[in-house]
Each structure stands twice: as structure tokens, then as C-alpha cells.
Amino acid sequence: MDHFLTIFDLSTEEMKGLLKRAAKLKQLRQEGRLPKPLAGQNWALLFEKSSTRTRVSFEVGVNLLGGNAFYMSPDQIQLGRGEPLEDTARVLSRYVDGLVVRTFGHDRVKTLAQWGSIPVINGLTDLCHPCQLLADLLTVQERLGTVEDFKSAWIGDGNNMAYSWIASAAVLGFTLSLACPSGYDPAPTAMAKAKELGAKVEVVRDPGQAVAGADVINTDVFASMGQEAEAAQRLKDFAGFQINRELVEKANPGAVVLHCLPAHRGEEITEEVLEGPQSAVFDQAENRLHAQMAVLEALARR
Fold it and tell me: Catalytic: which of 131, 234, 260, 284?
């Protein structure tokens, strides 16, 4: 593994290996026995989108593994004045040992990986959010004891999170049902690639149909970063796609509820469910740290 850009880039063995290592690193952290594979290394965090969980978990993760992490926004470097990404990639490769990128178009993270000579980690693009999916699946593994034999339901927008769930279903083989309003389907390229790989993935219009027999129920905000102007219309379009007690009761007993946060309580999920006994959202948020440490370790220059 040279970079970590999308889940589709991973084999089943690589995906399961990262999750196994993430669980072990979590245990080692609790015991105060973490290895230091990033000792002497410097990792840059280039963020063109704001962040809480991604930024803090990566900075802490790099530090815990013995390295040094520092944050850069476009207005702090020449990228904000129009320097080509190709040049930025080549220059940063002379200074740092790895790069975490949180940006808009997926082509931007691909360009940085192509033109640089250091590992690049996708901290989020408009296309996909692979780091979040590792944390989600680590949480599923902890709660269900499997990342292969279960059904997951995605309720809401066919966004970058939906894309990454589709990719994960294709790589690991679990069943995925996505309930999306008309006009908000997942990227056709994701569905096509998943089908080519034999994935058990479907898109439906009825959230109740999606959660029937589900062991995991997942959602995201109706309007993501950059879609604020569409928020009012999206709120109308997503009426009926809220995760509430009535919907959860249609899933398997004890189904795990996930949300990548931040949550708009009362919109895509109710306060009752988010704070309820089936919610694993804060374990899920914590697991960003452990999952990303596994990625960092796997990409660390030896």
C-alpha cells in the first residue's frame, strides 16, 4: 500500500489487516505500550476543509506513534496564491515523510499522490471518506464481532460517506441497503464498480425497507460542507429519512446506530436515538484515532 485514497484500492486482506491492527493499537494505547514507527518523521496535514475529528485524531495519532504533525491551510502556504498542486507535491516531498489531505475534488488528492514521492492519505474528498469507514467498521467489529457477515442500512444522501460504505461492502462482502430520496443516489461509478465485484448492494426509496433485517443503521447530515445554500431544499427532500425510534425498531433487535458527526439533532437523527443505548457514535468517533494510526503505521517510511 503506497497511499490510502479510497477503500476500492484495498484488497479484502489489506482491509481486514488494517482493522485487526487498529484493534491491537487501541489495546496497546490503553496499556501504554504503543510502538513508535513514526519516530523522527514529520507529517503534514493539508486541509482545505474545516475539521474537528479528522484534524485532531491525525495530529494525536502521529504524535502517539512517535512522529511530529503540523497543520497547513491554503491561506498559510503558496497553494493559496495559485501554486500548482504538482509543484506543491514535489516540494513537500523534499521536506516531510507523509501527507494527510482534506479537500474538495478527489482529483486534487490523486494529483498530490501522483506528483509527490511520499505517502498520501485521503482525509476526506467530495467523492469519499475512507478514514471514516475504517473507524465505522472497527466499531462494527467491536459491537458485532464481524465485518463481513452483517447487513448495514444507509439512510439519507448518497454522498461521500455512502460511496465509502459501498466500496467497503464490495471489499468485505457484507450486505448494504441504501435508502436515498430520488435525485440523491450514490455515484453511479461506485455502484457499477461494486456490482462488478459482486457486492450485495442495493438502492431503495423506503428507509423502512432498507433497515429491515439490518444490524447497523447509519446516516450523515442532509447538507454537507459546501451545500449550505441547499440546506432548506434538502430538508424538504429528505423528509421521512430521519433515523428515529420508529425506524430503529424496524431493524434487528439491538441494531447498532452510527453517525460520523457532526450531527444535526432533530433533522437526520433524533436526540433520543443519538443518545440512546443502541448508539455507538462516540465510540465511532474515538475509533478514528485507532483506525488512522493503523494506516499511518502501514504507510510509515522504514
Answer: 260
